[in-house]
Amino acid sequence: MNKESQVPIFEAPDAKLDLHATHVKAAAEARGIPTVTKIVQAGGKRNTWLTFHIGGQEFFYARGMLLVQGSDDWGRIGLNVNHDAALLIGHKFRCKQYLADKGYSVPAGQFFRRRKLEDAYASFKDFSGPICVKPNHGTEGRCVFPSITDEHWFKTAIDRVAARFPNILIEESVVGEHFRFFYVEPEVVGIRCGRPCSVVGDGGASLLELANAKNAERVQRDLPTHPPFAINDAMGEYLERHGRALDDVPAAGERVFLSGVSNATAGADSYLFWEEVHPSYREIVAKACQDLPGLHYSGVDLVIEDYTVPATDNNYWLLEFNTSPALLSFYYPWEGQKVDVAARILDMLERHYPTA
Question: What residue numbers bound the domain in which 216 lies?
C-alpha cells in the first residue's frame, strides 16, 4: 500500500477544482494547511484532485472521495479513508443484515441476481405493503423505484434495474421523512432532510404548470444543489402509479410529490435541521457507524416516521451508508443554516494523523 504510485501525477495550479473540493480547500487553508491542485492521469482520463498534508501524510480529495496516499498492486494513487468499511457497505443487502443482527431497524428485503429474474418477480407475494426496487450497489438514487403496489410496475422496475445492474435489492418501502445524517467520527455533525420533488397546488394551475414554476424558482435562486429537474417519462410514470397525471389540477394547499426519491439529483429539496430532530436519532446513527469497522465518516440515509419523538425499534429505518458522501447539500440548502462539514472531516484527520 505504501509503495510508490505507478500513476502519472503532476501539479496543475490553474486546474479547476470541483465544488466539493473548493470547500475542502477553504477549510484546509483556514487552518493554515497548504493545498496543491494535481492532475492524475489514469485509464486514459485526466482527473483533478485537491491534495494536502496532515501529520506528514498526503491526502487526495475530489467529488466526495477522500484518499490517503499510498499504492497497492494495481498502482492506485491511494485508498479511500473508509476502505476497510467499503466492502460491507457497498453490498447494501449484506450491510442491512449485519446491522439487523446488531439490533438496528432496517427495511425487510430480499436480494436477487440478474440471472434469477423469475425468482425476483415471484417475490411480489412476499410483501404486504408498498415495495421499493433498487440496485444493490447503486448510488445517487439511480434506478430507485419506491412505493410500488402494482405487480406490473413491480416487474417493470425489476427489469429496469436489471438492465443496468447485476444485483437487485427488493425491500419494503418504508414511510416517513427521508434524512441524511452526516457522520464524522465520533458523532453526527449535520442533518439534512430531503423532501422528494414536489409542488403545492393553488387551485388553478396544473401539475405541469406548477413544476415549471418550481423550476423557474430554482433557476432564479441558482443553488448548485438545486438545478432545474427533468419533467420526463419517469415523472409521468411515477404520477400514474399514484393515480395522477401532469395535467391534473391539485387543490389549493395540496402537496403533490412528483418523485419518490430524496436525492438532490432527482429534484428533492434540502432542508438542514438540528434541534428539530430528536437527539436519539443522532445517537443511533453514530453508534451504527461505529459498529461498521473502518468507517471514519459517512452520509447515512434513513427514514423516520416522526423525527420529533424518541427513536424506538419500529419508527426509523437505516437505509444505507456512503463511503464518499457528497458535501454540497450542507453548504447550499433550500432552507436552513449551512454546516462546514469539510472542517469537521479535517478535524478527524488531524486526530488520526497528529503532527509530530
Answer: 197-259
